[in-house]
Amino acid sequence: MAGEPLLRVSDLTVTFPTGRGPVRAVEGLGFSVHRGRTLGIVGESGSGKSVTSLAVMGLHTGAEVTGSVVLDGRELTGLAERELNRLRGRRMAMIFQDPLSALHPYYTVGEQIAEHHRVHFGSRRAASRRRAAELLGEVGIPEPALRAGAYPHQFSGGMRQRVMIAMALACEPELLIADEPTTALDVTVQAQILELIARLQEQRALAVVLITHDLGVVARVAHEVLVMYGGRAVEQAPVDALFAAPAHPYTRGLLDSLPRLDDGDDEPLRAIPGSPPSLLDPAPGCAFAPRCPRAAAAAPAERTRCEDTRPELRSAEGHLVACHLSPHTAAHARRGTR
Amino acid sequence: MTAAAAAPVAPLPAPPAPLLSVRDLKMTFPGRTAFPGWMAFPGRRARSAAVRAVDGVSFDLAAGETLGLVGESGCGKSTTGRMIVRLLEPTAGSVVYDGRDISRLRQRALKPLRRELQMVFQDPHSSLNPRWTAARIIADPLLVQGGSAAGARRRAAELLELVGLLPQHLDRYPHEFSGGQAQRIGIARALATGPRLIVADEPVSALDVSVQAQIVNLLARLQEELGPAFLFISHDLSVVKRVCDRVAVMYLGRIVETGDKERVYAAPAHPYTRALLSAVPLPDPAAERARERIMLSGTLPSPAAPPPGCTFHPRCPKAREVCRSEVPLLRVATAGEAREVACHFPEPEPSG
To answer: Which residue of A205, A317, B135, B303 is 20 to 30 Å from A309, comparing CA positions?
Structure first.
């Protein structure tokens, strides 16, 4: 991709102080997103994907955040709260999983959207309210002028998520971070919301970071995918390459364990044994090693390496993979015969 | 339903009496009281409208069969499941279990039946008593049914092993287990009394993808080994396709399509089923781009004020005049087919 990325994150590490010692929720993470592109960050609970999104927005107060987050050439880490406030909402915005807890219950949705406009553009009350109604119309809410006067509880889940999107886009940001934006929604409504985000992205050349646990959603909307496990990136690749030939055993395991509509269902699912790691007591080596079929099948010396040494992200056939046992040269067979 | 037998094709062999037979099941939740009675005044409605959560659901479930009840949130699938295990008393209709209508039985009369009807819940942690050990949680149904303490503990150890946990897990508390392990305990508890019917309400929805597959495989294995019938309630069509023999798709308190899994997934006849299937994201970018999606407008209407006629008509891409006024009944769309649809214009269009 030509040109400078809009967002460049490098060596991001987030550490939380806890009663049981520091917990490193995200470690050494790096990625970049260009205008008009979507990066999907995939992972299970505790993989650090939401912590990452909050770190980019500078929303961690109790945590230690190191590394670098550069938005359009400007370093955000270490920026004063006042400076960040000018950027949040204006140049980068976020939508959350649960719109009901992200919206203020006492204010009408129109007022909540209009407030953004007044704060960032200093516009007049009447003008900002008109703009709020326009935005509600743009995200597909019927009778926007009327609905602007309604309170969050008067909307359905899908409509609330549209309100969140309207609010996020109120000040024409260039970067949109969507943290599980459709997880709380039904599939038919999810399809509507994903379509809406894609349309708005096209119209405004938005850079989108979409955080999800759903590989199907990633396959639908992302251009580039980052797979996280135990707070680290284990694989990063363009969406087609990732799904066609997952290079990391965890990515492969995730895809294999997914029940899918377009598959036969005679064979049992190939589940990954065990459960995701605890961040309280991280293993010195690869976080996936205890569950990894490749490590289990490897020679003892190689297995020890997996257990004792952190694998670094290396590039292999267009993928970035953090695995000691990832074959650099052998082409991965395409999954199945489809 | 006997409509299949009435079709003008070779008569099907009379099926054995089903284990569970649900007929015209209804659940109406009274509206909430906005004001206490003494505050009520003219012109102010004291109650909001009653919610018809389940509005006439009928199906059969044979012994050892797995039926998937799918639909979006608020369609009444969980309420249906709860009425079948009699955690709720239906407003109307019947639940005939093993030849006996249990829909009006009192709690005392239900107790012996609880041995045969069990339930697995969505959230593994909130469905386990945090102050009990795994052994006590699993043994409790046996003790309630009059088992001895030592025998119940022995059985609990066996059950733990059956669901893939270890005997040393017996004396641990729920918080010491991960979500997947806790769900295994919930399943062991449901299996304790050797039930013939298990209602599983979204048993894998709260789990991570990698763990979800373990539990799906476990349920499939247990079903094969122990042979209970399953009513598998889920919003996830991909999981249901894995686990079930038959599916019933619910929309706003009614079943809109039901039949053999292969038929329903391969050739959905109801426009809602079609839209639902086409909305499920596939983990395959190329297939996703090539896919034709049926986008539904709007969201589920309120079950307190369901639309007249076919309740799906305001969102239906092929709704016509008749859909606005007449309620379509669940009937066999293509003669001789093990599938029923509640639609005036099912797919494929009957072209003569």
So the answer is: A317
